TrEMBL record, chain A:
Source organism of this protein record: Vineibacter terrae
A Gene Ontology molecular function term of the record: ATP binding
Coiled-coil regions listed: none
PANTHER family: HIGH-AFFINITY BRANCHED-CHAIN AMINO ACID TRANSPORT ATP-BINDING PROTEIN, HIGH-AFFINITY BRANCHED-CHAIN AMINO ACID TRANSPORT ATP-BINDING PROTEIN LIVF
Superkingdom, taxonomy of origin: Bacteria
Keywords: Amino-acid transport, ATP-binding, Nucleotide-binding, Transport
CDD domains: ABC_TM1139_LivF_branched (cd03224)
Domain ABC transporter: from-to ranges: 2-232
Lineage of producing organism: Bacteria, Pseudomonadati, Pseudomonadota, Alphaproteobacteria, Hyphomicrobiales
Family: Belongs to the ABC transporter superfamily.
Record has ATP-binding as a keyword: yes
Protein name per UniProt: ABC transporter ATP-binding protein
GO biological process: L-amino acid transport
UniProtKB/TrEMBL annotation, chain B:
Record bears the keyword Transmembrane helix: yes
Record-level GO BP terms: amino acid transport
Membrane-spanning segments: 6-29, 60-84, 96-115, 135-156, 168-188, 194-219, 226-247, 253-275
Pfam families: BPD_transp_2
InterPro entries: ABC_transp_permease, BCAA_transport_permease
Presence of keyword Transmembrane: yes
Entry's Gene Ontology cellular component terms: plasma membrane
Protein name: Branched-chain amino acid ABC transporter permease
Species this chain originates from: Vineibacter terrae
Alphabetic keyword roster: Amino-acid transport, Cell membrane, Membrane, Transmembrane, Transmembrane helix, Transport
Membrane topology: Multi-pass membrane protein
Taxonomy, superkingdom: Bacteria
Length: 234, 288
């Protein structure tokens, strides 16, 4: 589904991502784990086209999308739930979801399907996105992404600033999506427990490079975590 | 009673005039944060488009309501594609570029049409209210302003196009990540703003006539109204027009037209001193 080859990118002349290569197969759930500032978010922004690739190639569903604009990548089914959610604050929950469908050229009927998966949003459809709690916004951001019927979802730190009960709910939702729809997901996270419970395999990112791959179970072992990435267990 | 009716009509007419000359600017500035200093010249171009079409045998209403907005709307899209789209996020650069464009438009139109007043007669005749008479066309313009405001609100509130425009205005990068092309939205928005300016230029041509420099007569009032209105495109423009138009007409009736203009400017200065973000920056923040 996704093939990244020798990808490089950064901000102005400062390189952040350097020579990153990896593949994600159909229906796979791949985690990318790394410290703050290691290039996790930069990697996702480059994949969706918010940052230009300075070298390398991004192949998605058989096409080269390295230089395609962001909206064309989204229209091909590569969708993004950004860090900080980026809900449209002045739009209602319903209109935020409609934006997800409109961007993909889908009718509003798709909202019913998504709301059946995420019923927590039903009672708050008329509220403005900007007044929701962080957890509600995260679920809304995920629902908005699903309204475009994506082939692949890129999730950037969905647990950031979210209370533990909502994190459990997000885990349940993602597991359900993985099981029922076979959605392909790339998740970047610092929360090792979260990534361990969801991912089929975990890529380690350090200083803008993929330095290894570990089975998720290894993240339960503090000694192995320290060996691979030098991170304390969260 | 007749005096009160004619005064009310004049206030409505002044408010409508501000709404009309500001609407195109409000759409472009409010949705895209582009300060279009060529707005007055877009109005001027609409006037010339209507007059030229009419002089070449096109029905007056078609010339004003179809030819003028279509001409200026297409011109606006060309301007956006060639100039504006390279300057998004660069406020000063867009101001300089549109100012240059306004000078070029004035020069070009002067070369083509000459530096003389062109005009057409106002249709619809006059309206008698007791001992007073006023132009029925002015009442028509009040209705046009109301229709444009309601139609604009309905498009933004109820249509998918309006939803995409509102979403893109709030966060263009996120809209793009959902599959919306901000570039296309901006081109259409600029075209719609320009078409509105063209429509109004065409509609005002029978009242004011057109000269190549007539844009200067509109631009200051349009900017004052849009800035006073604040972030909400339609309600901000409507409320600011209501307030400033009423003050202008009341002072004109009580004293002189010159004092009416002075009062309008003074009211805007005081308003922006109290509400630097404009009326809808403090009140009606969630309105469109």
């Amino acid at each position: 589904m996704l093939r990244v080859t020798d990808l490089a990118s950064g901000y102005q002349k400062i390189p952040i991502i350097m020579g990153v290569s990896f593949e994600v197969g159909d229906g796979e759930f791949v985690g990318v784990l790394g410290h703050n500032g290691m290039g996790k978010s930069t990697l996702l922004k480059t994949l969706v086209g918010q940052l230009p690739a300075t070298a390398g190639r991004i192949g998605f569903a058989g096409s080269d999308i390295t230089h395609a604009p962001t909206h064309q990548r989204a229209r091909r089914g590569l969708r993004y739930v950004p860090q900080g959610r980026q809900i449209f604050p002045g739009l209602t929950v319903r209109d935020n979801l409609r934006m997800g469908a409109a961007g993909a050229g889908l009718a509003d009927d798709v909202l019913d399907e998504v709301l059946d998966e995420l019923p927590r949003l039903k009672p708050i459809l008329g509220r403005a996105g900007g007044v929701l709690s962080g957890g509600e916004q995260q679920i809304l951001a995920l629902a908005r992404c699903l309204c475009g019927r994506p082939r692949m979802v890129l999730l950037d730190e969905p647990t950031e600033g979210i209370q533990p009960s909502i994190i459990e709910e997000i885990i349940d939702i993602l597991l359900r999506l993985k099981r029922r729809s076979g959605l392909t997901i790339v998740l970047v996270e610092q929360n090792q427990d979260f990534i361990r419970r969801l991912a089929d395999r975990v890529l380690i990112i350090q200083k803008g490079r993929i330095t290894g791959e570990v089975p998720p179970d290894h993240l339960a072992d503090p000694a192995l975590v320290a060996e691979f990435i030098g991170m304390a267990v969260t | 009673m007749d005096y009160a009716a004619i005064l009310a009509l004049q206030i409505c007419s002044a408010v409508a005039s501000l709404v009309l000359i500001s609407l195109g600017l409000a759409v472009i500035f409010g949705m895209m944060r582009v300060i279009n200093l060529a707005h007055g010249e877009f109005l001027m171009l609409g006037g010339y488009a209507a007059i030229t079409a009419y002089n070449n045998g096109v029905n007056l209403w078609l010339a004003m309501l179809i030819v003028a907005p279509l001409t200026v709307g297409l011109f606006g899209i060309v301007v956006e594609r060639l100039i504006i789209r390279h300057l998004y996020g660069r406020l000063i650069d867009t101001m300089l570029a549109t100012w240059g464009l306004s000078l070029a438009m004035i020069g070009f139109v002067t070369v083509v049409f000459g530096n003389t007043v062109s005009g057409i007669s106002a249709p619809l005749g006059s309206l008698t209210i007791g001992a007073y008479r006023t132009g029925a066309y002015e009442v028509f313009l009040v209705l046009v302003a109301a229709v444009l405001l309601v139609a604009g609100w309905a498009v933004l509130r109820f249509t998918r196009l309006g939803l995409i425009a509102r979403g893109t205005m709030q966060n263009a990068a996120m809209a793009a990540a959902l599959g919306v092309s901000p570039s296309l939205v901006y081109a259409v928005t600029f075209g719609v703003g320009a078409a509105l300016s063209g429509l109004v230029g065409g509609l005002l041509a029978p009242l004011s006539g057109v000269v190549p420099t007539i844009g200067a007569a509109y631009i200051a009032k349009a900017f004052i109204t849009v800035i006073s209105g604040g972030a909400a495109i339609l309600s901000g423009t409507a409320i600011a027009s209501g307030l400033l138009g009423t003050i202008n007409t009341a002072m004109t009736f009580a004293f002189t037209p010159v004092l009416g203009e002075v009062a309008l400017l003074a009211a805007a200065v005081i308003l922006l001193r109290i509400l630097p973000q404009g009326i809808t920056g403090r009140f009606f923040q969630r309105s469109l």
